[in-house]
Design brief:
By secondary structure, the chain is an all-alpha fold. It has nine helices and two strands. The chain is globular and about 55 Å long.
């Protein structure tokens, strides 16, 4: 079997991986969550363009799929877990609970990395996720958590250890949830069929303009809320149709 390692799409994927590793380093050595967030944004751009370039150059391959998942696991799974663990270590307990207990509970934040692996593995074999996602995409989760960490470091929000544990568990569960979340994948650029996508992009631009520092967090929370409401509406429609057939 002739396996080409050094293709342009693969190099872009490795760029994603390297940016993720750098984010881990700046988190553990400098506790610089703003830089970690910037590196994850750069990694997300690499992640976006590697697939696009692979399709344009007709260089899609099983190797590329495996590389993409491995790189995504580091950048969008390990990085947010490390950031949440790090910010937890520098926070205090709201209820002043036993320090030893709270120290060991901090490792619960690593559930983000574990469930990100499950999310990515499921995506690779789930044929129903071609046009939409099942569960929160790992890049969105990573950007949300790093944005939250940056805001906390800048003094814009206050996070206690109990908050960090709840957020870590909740977001990890969102990763593997059955919620169908819409994807910003356009089959055509007409309005019909893309109403939700264009509307979301427009609102996101407004949030960037008016909320600036809070915009990333706000956009992803909005994405989760809209996707959840859409999913619940779809379930209701399906239940109604099934009842009507009976």
């Amino acid at each position: 079997m002739n396996i080409r390692l050094f293709t342009l799409p693969n190099m872009l994927t490795l760029g994603n991986l390297i940016a993720g590793v750098m984010a881990v380093i700046v988190t553990l050595t400098e506790h610089d969550y703003k830089m970690a967030l910037l590196l994850v944004v750069i990694a997300a751009l690499f992640d976006f363009f590697d697939g696009m370039v692979a399709r344009l150059l007709n260089q899609q391959s099983p190797l590329g799929v495996q590389l993409d998942s491995l790189a995504d696991d580091v950048t969008f799974g390990v990085v947010p877990a490390v950031v949440m663990f790090d910010i937890y270590a520098h926070s205090s307990s709201y209820y002043a609970l036993d320090a030893t207990l709270m120290h060991y509970l901090g490792y619960v934040t690593l559930i983000i990395a574990a469930f990100s692996v499950l999310r990515l593995a499921k995506f690779n074999i789930d044929t129903t996720q071609a046009t939409e996602f099942c569960g929160l995409p790992t890049p969105a989760n990573a950007l949300m958590l790093l944005s939250l960490a940056m805001l906390e470091q800048q003094g814009n929000v206050v996070l206690y250890q109990e908050h960090i544990l709840v957020i870590s568990i909740a977001t990890a569960l969102l990763l593997i949830s059955p919620i169908r979340m819409f994807a910003l994948k356009f089959k055509g650029f007409g309005w019909r069929g893309n109403e939700l996508r264009y509307g979301f992009i427009l609102v996101s631009l407004l949030l960037i303009i008016f909320l600036t520092t809070y915009s990333i967090l706000a956009i992803i929370v909005l994405y989760i809320v809209v996707s959840t409401l859409r999913w619940l509406f779809m379930l209701r429609e399906a239940t109604t149709d099934e009842g009507a057939k009976r």
